[in-house]
Amino acid sequence: MRAADIPEDLTEILVTEEEIRSKLDELAARVAEDYAGKDLLLIGVLKGAVMVMADFARALPFSVPMDWMAVSSYGASTKSSGVVQIRKDLDTDLHGKHVLIVEDVIDSGLTLSWLLENFASRGAESIEVLALLRKPEAAKVEIDCKYVGFDIPPEFVVGYGLDYSERYRNLRDVAVLAPHVYA
Ligand code: 5GP
Ligand code: MG
Ligand code: MG
């Protein structure tokens, strides 16, 4: 669905579908160059990163394996709990792999800092992060994110995979959710 389909649920469109597409093409070109000849593994963080992974992976000019990890840190609330729980683990042995974590958004950074430590302990050769969105003002821990799509203000956003209570993931753009929806 498009933002115009649900105007009363949104206050502002932050990133459009077109902007996302061209940014992911740009990031894919950089990643293709940086990982030429390397054993790259993409790891998507479910469920929010599904759309990013789908479009980013298809923008790469070579075949690449994908694995998925499901963790929870939010539940149905809009605030990070800081508690990370594995809901679905990886299927892949990380030894010798050049891992690129594909994320929807870096908010407090707590989830990623936990994931980075977890993946490092499994023997990955290298680990980098690609995040479509980042909220610099919300950072509680600094994450060294090599590939960032867009820096956005510290507001709760939905769309392009991002949900509120499992809704709005199929919105094509990234938009700020109107407070009355969760108030
Ligand atoms: P963290 O605070 O640990 O960096 O963010 C953890 C996860 O919370 C993100 O990967 C994302 O799934 C979710 N999250 C953070 N900010 C937002 C937001 O603005 N909207 C939505 N829908 N999810 C968010
Ligand atoms: Mg996420
Ligand atoms: Mg969520």
UniProtKB/TrEMBL annotation:
Q: Which GO terms describe its cellular component?
A: cytosol
Q: Spell out the SUPFAM superfamilies in the cross-references.
A: PRTase-like (SSF53271)
Q: Where in the cell is it found?
A: Cytoplasm
Q: What is its EC number?
A: 2.4.2.8
UniProt keyword Hydrolase, yes or no: no
- Signal sequence coordinates: none
Give the CDD domains listed for this entry: PRTases_typeI
State the Gene Ontology terms under molecular function: guanine phosphoribosyltransferase activity; hypoxanthine phosphoribosyltransferase activity; magnesium ion binding; nucleotide binding
Q: Determine if Manganese is one of this entry's keywords.
A: no
**Cofactors that this protein relies on:** Mg(2+)
InterPro entries assigned:
HGPRT (IPR050408), Hxn_phspho_trans (IPR005904), PRTase-like (IPR029057), PRTase_dom (IPR000836)
Gene Ontology BP terms: GMP salvage; guanine salvage; hypoxanthine metabolic process; IMP salvage; purine ribonucleoside salvage
Per UniProt, the keywords (alphabetical) are: Cytoplasm, Glycosyltransferase, Magnesium, Metal-binding, Nucleotide-binding, Purine salvage, Transferase
* Pfam families listed in its UniProt record: Pribosyltran
Q: In which pathway does it act?
A: Purine metabolism; GMP biosynthesis via salvage pathway; GMP from guanine: step 1/1; Purine metabolism; IMP biosynthesis via salvage pathway; IMP from hypoxanthine: step 1/1
State the reactions this protein catalyses.
GMP + diphosphate = guanine + 5-phospho-alpha-D-ribose 1-diphosphate; IMP + diphosphate = hypoxanthine + 5-phospho-alpha-D-ribose 1-diphosphate
Major place of residence: cytoplasm
| Phosphoribosyltransferase domain ranges (all copies) | 18-164
What protein family does this chain belong to? Belongs to the purine/pyrimidine phosphoribosyltransferase family.
Record-given protein name: Hypoxanthine phosphoribosyltransferase
Look up and give the organism this protein is from: Microbacterium azadirachtae
Q: What lineage, starting at the top, does this entry show? A: Bacteria, Bacillati, Actinomycetota, Actinomycetes, Micrococcales
